[in-house]
């Protein structure tokens, strides 16, 4: 059985409804975790549908965990994670799950697989600047980490790896889980011929010829804090630590001086740096 978990937060229901309908046709069980202030009105058959509403926003990691627990308790073998702003093809779940099944038959230590990401802003395939491809098996490209949206997980391996780290709340949650899987000698991969359109960030901006993602001010708190928190962990790759620590000053400058709501952004970045140094985790509202 295949299940899916979709996380909602103040969704644009035009796009999100299309995603939910597409997912509902491809899986046996659908779990929706809604972090929006008000419940989202859904036009879906209630059969095999789990809906949870958390008006106080429990974070992406806790939302994923609730959804994954729903899928496991419903007897699913594989679980797919999706954000509300992703767009998938009609055979998306089948193609990803087939690759996981084939890997299990061939006794490859593959725990999760995701698609090639096409950025909805540039309409181009996202190519990480630093991450290298580790190994290639036919249509499977093993890598060090993949994003959570579009990720198909072998649910039986959660007992070995564990669930998502809820202390991070958001930002870095997907990568941290992948690195923890690698620590257990399990691999994550990209399906080379499966693509998914996904919205990365709220908008785009350019500085010194480099285009970068722009998110809401509060996301800066988690981004800055979690870099400091994750950089202390031994299983986090050195290339990730080096790159993210080195670009923190540049990101502070770009977000503090080149974007709107400058003082608000600076406040969240400073709070994130302070809490990262003090090893505080959880939601921003818990600490400030």
TrEMBL record:
Highest taxon of source: Bacteria
Entry's EC annotation: 2.4.1.-
Protein name (record) = Rhamnosyltransferase
Sorted alphabetically, which Gene3D superfamilies does this protein's record hold? Answer: Spore Coat Polysaccharide Biosynthesis Protein SpsA, Chain A (3.90.550.10)
Q: Which UniProt keywords apply?
A: Glycosyltransferase, Transferase
MF terms (GO), sorted A to Z: glycosyltransferase activity
Keyword Glycosyltransferase attached = yes
EC class, as a word, reads: transferase
Q: Which organism is it from?
A: Aliiglaciecola lipolytica E3
């Amino acid at each position: 059985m295949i299940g899916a978990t979709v996380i909602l937060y103040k969704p644009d229901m035009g796009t999100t409804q299309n995603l939910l309908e597409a997912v509902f046709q491809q899986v046996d069980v659908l779990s929706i975790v809604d972090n929006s202030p008000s419940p989202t009105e859904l036009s879906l058959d209630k059969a095999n549908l789990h809906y949870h509403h958390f008006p106080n926003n429990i974070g992406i990691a806790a939302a994923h965990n609730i959804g994954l627990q729903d899928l496991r308790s419903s007897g699913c073998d594989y679980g797919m994670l999706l954000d509300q702003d992703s767009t998938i093809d009609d055979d998306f779940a089948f193609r990803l799950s087939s690759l996981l099944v084939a890997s299990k038959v061939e006794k490859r230590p593959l725990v999760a697989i995701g698609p090639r990401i096409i950025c909805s802003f540039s309409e181009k395939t996202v190519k990480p600047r630093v991450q290298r491809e580790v190994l290639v098996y036919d249509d499977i490209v093993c890598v060090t980490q993949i994003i959570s949206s579009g990720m198909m997980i072998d649910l039986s391996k959660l007992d070995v790896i564990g669930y998502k780290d809820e202390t991070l709340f958001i930002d870095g949650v997907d990568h941290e889980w992948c690195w923890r899987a690698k620590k257990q000698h399990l691999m994550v991969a990209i399906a080379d011929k499966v693509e998914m359109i996904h919205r990365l960030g709220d908008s785009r901006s350019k500085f010194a010829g480099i285009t970068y993602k722009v998110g809401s001010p509060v996301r800066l708190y988690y981004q800055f804090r979690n870099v400091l928190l994750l950089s202390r962990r031994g299983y986090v790759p050195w290339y990730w630590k080096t790159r993210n620590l080195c670009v923190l000053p540049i990101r502070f400058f770009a977000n503090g001086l080149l974007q709107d709501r400058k003082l608000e952004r600076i406040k969240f970045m400073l709070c994130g740096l302070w809490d990262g140094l003090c090893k505080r985790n959880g939601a921003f509202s818990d600490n400030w």
